[in-house]
Amino acid sequence: MVEQARGTSYTQIVYGPGGGKLALMNGSTLSKAFVPLPGGGTAVYTSSGLIYYRHSDWLGNGQLATTTTRTMYFDAAYAPYGESYATSGSVDLDFTGQKQDTVSGLYDFLFREYNANQGRWPWPDPAGMGAVNVTNPQTWNRYAYVANMPLNATDPLGLILGPWSDVVGTGRWSIQDPNLDPGAAFINSAIQDFLVQAGLNSPIQQGFQAYLTTMYGTDNVRWGNGGWQAYVPYPSWTSDNGFTIHTGNGHWVDVGSIGGETANAWWGNFFENLFSHWSWGVKAPNQTYRQCLSQNSSNYSLAGALNQHGKGAQLVAGNDVASLLFGNPSEGMAGLITAEGASHTLQAGAGTAVTYGRRTASIFNLNLSGKTGPAPAALGKTGAKGIIATAAAYKFAADIGATIALIGGCLTHP
Amino acid sequence: MKDSVMRQIKSGLRWGGGLAVFLIALIPLVDGLRRTVWAAHAHQHVEPIGWLELVFAAVLFASTASIWAYYLLGCMVFGAIKGIALLAMGGGGTPLQTAELLLFILGTTLLLTSVVSRPIMLFDRIMLTLFVFSVGWQADRGLFVPDLSLFVGLVFLFASWCSHFWKRRHSRVPGSGDALLWSTTEKRPVMRSGKS
Question: Does the CB of B27 have a partner CB in chain A at under 8 Å?
């Protein structure tokens, strides 16, 4: 909570655990409360009760507000840098999810004030020279707002540039790009370090995990790479001002108390991923053995080692054995095919193959050229023989090995 | 220890070793691409040492191509089965994207089967290595995402097949209808009747 004094008027600003502004109080009297709604909307309350619903655009700008009786409360439009125009009604401006609760004309970002009329920060990025990337001239000006890309980037904290909107409060994703805002990468790294040092089973970690699972869904949060990670279903790439911003095809990113991605993590540093994904002790706190197996079934594979979770990678380089055995059954057949890289339609044949695979002799020589063995048993039903069966057996053997590593990894906590 | 057991252990070590080398070779490949090609994609500074890593990776890939090609083929076989099911059942992207991916997988399966079904020569090793490089070329934007570089990879495999086809045609003894072929069982060239 922060208290603001203006003359004899005092206002207490109440923040949520994630840093989002929850309410303005005057002593024990509620002045205004903001309740985030799905889809980026906000329900605004005063001491009289619910006043209006605020509807936001893709950047989080409050363009329209309506009352509970379905009438307009206010209507506003925003220029790219936040200047409002064409306003009507009882205007309560909200630029990228930030309000003007302290001084009129200045939006209260968590760490800095923003002047929409000037289109810049009144003071520089507190990361100092750490906020400057020499290869990106737009970052050389530490007063500049979102590297002068206001139409496809927001800065939810006043520190971090994100091509997507705020995580905090709105439930939308934020991703930092170290090429665009290296200071943000540093800050996020510091937060991650703090969370790691807090210890995996500490109350702060368990509280944070609960917070993340509420925000992202249980299956989309995991412990890995020395911190918490969330699964981001980004559809594609975007490009702006000659800079390419990777938005992925669905992949895990490191998340702190803010959303973000560590430098170059999406490039899939093979070594790093191999040891972060394929390691002993991947079972997260409060996670059952079965949940651990299910959540990591696609990591223990060639695709997982390369930190690739897209459809193509899972189809070709996923761990079919682990997915068949431990994949999330709630996803059903189509889900298993599309996301986990496996299919129940293969289960009969694969089950036989796995049984064969347990035989030491079969693992050693795979019976590759013979008529028996894992793959011939599994694929004989499909009519595939010879070289195809040999190759399939080889893939199966590799998947079985990775699955054994997965089981070992889930037997222990990190 | 029985001979059969020793043979099994040697076989297992050979296949396991081949896969291990493949995985190890991926390290300089990924790191080399990151320092060079992917850095260029992201408008970042290209580090020349990355090219050295790529050369090292290429040597590792080429030297063990005859083993890991089977693993790659196995991946493609299962990818093809799942891809067909995916196309039939829908989900996970547009049908066109799935069809493109499936086309690539099926093409690769076909050509890889052709490559590994005969003795793998130096040219084949080089083409297989180039195929892996093509797959990795745009992997910073996602592995096995339908892209031109993937289909360039198919061209390399096709070149390997063409080379084999060309050799077979030109090894025919004129007028006899016979062909000089490499025997996988006898490990040497043998004459095969073209009439059979």
Answer: yes
